[in-house]
Amino acid sequence: xxxxxxxxxxxxxxxxxxxxxxxxxxxxxxxxxxxxxxxxxxxxxxxxxxxxxxxxxxxxxxxxxxxxxxxxxxxxxxxxxxxxxxxxxxxxxxxxxxxxxxxxxxxxxxxxxxxxxxxxxxxxxxxxxxxxxxxxxxxxxxxxxxxxxxxxxxxxxxxxxxxxxxxxxxxxxxxxxxxxxxxxxxxxxxxxxxxxxxxxxxxxxxxxxxxxxxxxxxxxxxxxxxxxxxxxxxxxxxxxxxxxxxxxxxxxxxxxxxxxxxxxxxxxxxxxxxxxxxxxxxxxxxxxxxxxxxxxxxxxxxxxxxxxxxxxxxxxxxxxxxxxxxxxxxxxxxxxxxxxxxxxxxxxxxx
Amino acid sequence: xxxxxxxxxxxxxxxxxxxxxxxxxxxxxxxxxxxxxxxxxxxxxxxxxxxxxxxxxxxxxxxxxxxxxxxxxxxxxxxxxxxxxxxxxxxxxxxxxxxxxxxxxxxxxxxxxxxxxxxxxxxxxxxxxxxxxxxxxxxxxxxxxxxxxxxxxxxxxxxxxxxxxxxxxxxxxxxxxxxxxxxxxxxxxxxxxxxxxxxxxxxxxxxxxxxxxxxxxxxxxxxxxxxxxxxxxxxxxxxxxxxxxxxxxxxxxxxxxxxxxxxxxxxxxxxxxxxxxxxxxxxxxxxxxxxxxxxxxxxxxxxxxxxxxxxxxxxxxxxxxxxxxxxxxxxxxxxxxxxxxxxxxxxxxxx
Lengths: 351, 351
What we know:
- 2 copies of one chain form a homodimer.
- In chain A, strands 3, 4, 5, 6, 7, 15 and 16 form a 7-stranded mixed beta sheet that branches. A 6-stranded parallel beta sheet of chain A has the order 10-9-8-11-12-14. Chain A has a two-stranded antiparallel sheet with strand order 1-2.
- The longest helix of chain A is centred in the last third of the chain and has 20 residues, at 294-313.
- In chain A, strand 15, helix 12 and strand 16 (345-349) form a beta-alpha-beta unit.
- In chain A, 30% of the residues lie in helices and 27% in strands.
- Residues 1-26 of chain A have low confidence and may be disordered.
- Chain A has 2 domains: 6-150 and 318-349, Quinone Oxidoreductase, Chain A, domain 1, CATH 3.90.180.10; 153-286, NAD(P)-binding Rossmann-like Domain (Rossmann fold), CATH 3.40.50.
- The radius of gyration of chain A is 20 Å and the shape is globular.
- The relative contact order of chain A is 0.17.
- The first copy, chain A, is an alpha/beta fold.
- Chain A contains 12 helices and 16 strands.
């Protein structure tokens, strides 16, 4: 498989393959991007021409070097997850690159600076335009491919665990899908915050990698129910939704908070014991990051940098990279995510 | 009915009836209190002897003048709501009176000061002992009977609406049971905080009184479903639990928070659309005040005084008093609460 490990990317200059070249014509009113003529499987994605996005006064235009792949991209490609109003129809919820241009009201960034950004869409492209509040600097410690895989995973983990669930040092957390991009990012942040981390994963090998990555306990959900091993946790981060929620509540301590960030378990509805919820003072929090207003995203970026900025600059916050694909092979990147064989983030290299 | 209006209490010295006298022997190792030989109806409560509670180093002994009645007292009397570990078995979750004695480590209060307190139990008695963190001063603006009906209602409303649901100025709230002690207290706080207040109540007369008390919209739940009129609310305060929760979620705006503080609707479980909860970024928060640790109660009292202390001292925070009964007629006080005919707080006068 034509993918690159992080070690390779750090050690060698990336070969300028024909895949990359396809995207890089000089900037004009059009740009190269991954276009989708109609929803479908990975094969519907192709390199094509797209309008270069207009720049608003508070926006930053980024020349994209790398973009992280997220599970939501697969849903959007299939036509199941339309972009929020006003967002680019192009896939891609996070990227890293270089500031190409800034809007008139933007004082905090200069052209040429290395940046990464949380996007409502538009990452799978030569250029993207985003509100300056969703942008932050790339520390020297991070390669472009790492930075491109950082915003969505770490800001999702941070906003849900520390802002919504208000997790504290000394508390414990159960992270479902400990081997996912968000799961590995959540593990990193929670260990830095002095929490006890329990994860679930779908194989013995993934469990072992979660432990290597810092988790205190890894539960193979194919072999055993998580409730007994996780009993008494203070926080749960759950992307499976209705299918897991009753057991999340059963496992949680008095005062526990479960944040639901996905419905991947398939079921839509769950039967909840509300009287027990009350007596146990538990919280059920539904959360999505993509559709939140720009000022809330800016507040999340700001709170993240306040809390974890030193760790980011020191390289203690760094995504686990599963694989890197050239952008023209984005279909293979999607196939790898769909296989659920990956551990950590899958990235496409755009430049 | 032998009850007193607030106007009467303010205008006239309370007659020293034979009911009051029954409780007031000089303090020794025993005290007079409402005792219950076995769970049952209002008639099981009688004035009797109880051990005078021991004083810990962080405790305050209060000579009780007045105690508020709460719905939980009725449940406890029936044997359905046991007191939390370590709490007095005597009924009564709030009181006002005078400091009789302070523990060695208590520096913030002096004997003789007028105080009110949030209790885990023990209010229906001549004396009660409580952690100093649950005690706060009675402003001159409040009569004893008003102060005795303040802590549970206002701290429940405050902690749930402003601390857990993080309600903000400009947001709207739906308060179920707008005519209850908590409902009237919640209305007062939310209007002071610059919120739009919608309430439900069970009669046209109660709806009219809720509007008089400051609610912007009152919905008679016997005549119409609340969902349509309350659509788009940001916060819901719900003491009915599973029976109302699905409709609370249907009514709430994106980002809405419902706090469940009771199960009075009868049903234990509810079917929740978790996928919609996620997409709508809604929170379901289970909450009880009584069983929370003392440090959390102290934090609630402190946050309440920070936010609303000026309003309390100025008399802008004042419970709506439905009726006042002498302590020996506590059974009638319970019967009135069970009738649900009351509007605001029911109080027993102890001294």
